[in-house]
Amino acid sequence: MTTLRSTVDPASPEFVDAATVMEEKLAALSAEFDTALAGGGPDKVARHHKRGKMLPRERIELLIDRDSAFLELCPLAAYGSDFQVGASVVVGIGVVSGIECMIVANDPTVRGGTSNPWTLRKTLRANEIAMENRLPCIALVESGGADLPTQKDVFIPGGRGFRDLTQLSAAGIPTIALVFGNSTAGGAYIPGMSDHVVMIENQSKVFLGGPPLVQMATGEVSDDESLGGALMHARQSGLADYFARDEQDAIRIGRRIVSRLNWRKQGPGPVAGVIEPRFDPDELLGIVPGDLKIPFDPREVIARVVDDSDFDEFKPEYGSSLCTGWARIHGYPVGILANAQGVLFSAEAQKATQFIQLANRSNTPLLFLHNTTGYMVGKEYEQGGIIKHGSMMINAVSNSTVPHISLLIGASYGAGHYGMCGRAFGPRFLFAWPSAKSAVMGAAQLSGVIAMVSRAATEARGGSVDPEAEKQMRAAIEAQIEAQSVPAFLSGMLYDDGVIDPRDTRAVLGITLSAIDTAPVQGTSTFGVFRM
């Protein structure tokens, strides 16, 4: 039997404590999500509605198929910065006329929908996902262009957004712009570079320079409509392909455009029917302890995520600190690498390398479940080749061409973060649970190392160390590292694609695997030189 068994007891004190901590973290994150949902605040939202306009998420809700899911990505972008959480844009994957699409919607209630540095990073990430996964890209445009006070951080790198649009089109990936309001200055090139453009009567305004700028530059006096209105672009400039009467009509036309794309997935598709796990996904709340120093069995997570809780484990007796094996999620085959006891030894690294090669031979996507403190250190392990074995694993991850999905559920420290396909290694998607932490090492270890180096430097100069001052320094460093290692901070930096409720894990993975399947799934037999 390959069906996983479970020893989780929801009534145990350990489970109750872990679930309580997780629920507290979810509640704290919920407040940040609410901030993003609130947009520019009640007054600006009311003013927007009074003009007869919908909010970005209301537009998305009408655009996607009825009762279908919308997987919002990077909702905490700009958390911890001077900008509104969410970065004045909503991005995510939704099904439109039966086709999975990347949707990018400006939020005009936040500083007129202008693009700040975090808006740019978020939209560029959306473009990257669309390109990698071959997703048609729909822009719901209503933006005043660049945020002028931060233009130095937006203007030059912002050109990549235009390059992305044209490269998507060149790759045969459709780009569609539904213009709901202003699309000015550089923003005018979004409809200009899109394959299909819909504009709304008396509402869409697309021009390189508005009436005041034109008058200042040329002396010409004009009005919004003659300079860049929807009717002018539909009848004279030809920029508008479709002329809509109102927002609902524009969305209807957008859905019709998608339905006429004759779009086909190029992946192999699911290989079996969907069978729900045998264990309650609500129990995922209490599996990861509040203290990440306490080990937990990742098979308990796998049992509540994969189809029928069925898991064929690979090399279960070898390198037991890393659990590897084959499963299906919503009918899609996956290879899973999950950290079991935190530390990666030579055996685990070699096992992972072989497993990744096998997944590439069978064209099977890989799912990485992170809970690692990194590769083992110490004289015995250095002499045993931990560097070359860890390098083998990182080599395999780097050169693997099957799609990767990473999920941070516990610790993700040091080079172990790299070996488990962290953000720098280009996973198609990377999500985190509220329990996750990621840094070069744990806060206590990092502060201890800095204290030791500082002490040695002071003594080398002939000075003496004040134990109380050193203690205070370590406490300050630990607090700083803890604050910068938590999911909300890292998600705000766009180092993941979202912090998710553990109970939603299976649904999120199902959506991403289906999106991935829009593009071909092809492994490789070509890797860098493995040092033996």
Structure keywords:
alpha/beta, seven-stranded mixed sheet, 532 residues
Descriptive notes:
41% of the residues lie in helices and 18% in strands. The chain has 19 helices and 17 strands. It starts with 12 loop residues before the first helix and ends in a 16-residue tail after the last helix.
**N-to-C span:** 35 Å
What would you report as the Rg, rounded to the nearest angstrom?
25 Å
User: Which class of secondary structure composition applies to the elements?
Assistant: alpha/beta
Indicate the mean pLDDT.
Answer: 92
Low-confidence stretches: none
Number of strands: 17
Proportion of residues in helical segments: 40-55%
What is the number of helices?
19
Largest sheet: 8 strands, mixed
Shape: globular
Strand content: 15-25%
Please give a quick description of this structure.
With 532 residues, the chain is of the alpha/beta class. The protein contains 19 helices and 17 strands.
How is the topology of this model organized?
Elements: H1 13-37, H2 42-50, H3 56-63, E1 70-73, E2 89-96, E3 99-106, H4 117-133, E4 137-143, H5 151-170, E5 175-184, H6 189-192, E6 196-200, E7 205-207, H7 211-218, H8 224-228, H9 230-237, E8 242-244, H10 247-259, H11 298-302, E9 312-314, E10 322-329, E11 332-339, E12 343-344, H12 346-361, E13 366-372, E14 374-375, H13 379-383, H14 386-399, E15 404-413, H15 414-419, E16 429-432, E17 437-439, H16 443-460, H17 467-485, H18 487-492, H19 505-516
Helix pairs in contact: 4-5, 12-14, 16-17
